[in-house]
Amino acid sequence: MLPLAGPRFIRCQTHRLQVIYKSLLGIRRMNFLMETLQVIVMSIYYNMEAVVRLFIPPKNKNVTGEIVLITGAGSGIGRLLAEKFAPLGVSLVLWDINQEGMEETSRLVQEKGATKVHYYLCDCSDKSEVYRVADKVKREVGDVSILINNAGIVTGRKFMDAPDSLIEKTFEVNTMAHFWTYKAFLPAMTANNHGHLVSIASSAGLIGVNGLADYCASKFAAIGFAESVALELLATGKDGVKTTIVCPFFINTGMFDGCNTKWPLLLPILDPDYVANKIIEAILTDQVYLLLPRTMYFIIGLKNIIPAKLGILLGMYLGAFNFMDAFKGRVKKVE
User: Which InterPro entries match (predicted)?
Assistant: First the structure.
């Protein structure tokens, strides 16, 4: 039979536990200090890097041989992006619900130098159709390595005036379609630790706009989804799969016909060609966020630090309450 532990034995064990606890506490404090120092040093480095990049842009990456899929490629920004990619030696895969639009885009990109162009009729709001067409793309073209989720719709109606069916369609196209395309094409990217995910969102996904409740909500969700997946990729060591989130103000593509801006020098209605060029530049330089125009960086930053009442006052000053007053865009127009 083992002897019962005496007071001396208990004091000895207690002392040992105290020593171990103090050692662990010291290690934690050391880790805290080291990690804090690391954050400070890297913060200085990354800020300096950002300043340098203002004057010395990063070198464009080579996308020759990449398979680029663009949703909503039958018109607007989708068509322009396809045209910009045409001379870069990529294989283009065009998706849209408009067959004639895709055929026209295909013709235009071939005139611009594209030699490998494939187009598929696909309703991105239909999960089963996305998966079916995605499988067809994998068989006929290969694994997509640059995915550009561009398709989008806007109802342009006040929340209580928007039919339930249109609200649901807004989310199916602007948000849920991103889930299904990621599910279809991301596995191959992660397996190769190579690829690029591009979300064409909106500045309306960063700040609410009067008269765009469903559209804003769908774009907020799309941005949150893209950011979360980007963090998952980094957390799992898949840093070879890049992400870009694009948040432009209203673009003059017809989707937001009639929308106006109170101060065009501060918040201009954007030229589509300019936007397409900036998106291509962001993709080729692995830019994580692209806000257009540049004043949006200041506006969004200001939103997060000023009192709510002041934010409303500035919103009224900028005309945010009246952007949609003369809206006459087409409900099912694809960006």
Answer: NAD(P)-bd_dom_sf, Sc_DH/Rdtase_CS, SDR_fam
Which residues are marked as active site?
Answer: 215
User: Which distant-in-sequence residues (6+ apart) come within 8 Å of 285 by Cβ?
Assistant: 57, 58, 59, 60, 61
Tell me which residue of 262, 260, 248, 190 sits closest to 219, measured CA to CA.
248
Going 80 to 284 to 153 to 72, the CA torsion angle's sign is positive
Q: Are 284 and 60 in contact (CB under 8 A)?
A: yes
- Identify the CA nearest to 267 among candidates 219, 315, 305, 221: 315
| CA 201-237-284 angle, 5° bins | 45
What backbone phi and psi angles, to 5 degrees, belong to 218?
A: -70, -35
List, in order, residues 6 or more apart from 323 with CB less than 8 Å away: 209, 210, 211, 212, 250, 259, 260, 261
The structure's pTM equals 0.85
- Residues of the chain with pLDDT > 70, as a percent, come to 87
Please tell me whether the peptide bond between 58 and the residue prior to it is cis, using omega within 30 degrees of 0: no
Tokens representing residue 159 in the block = 């929340």
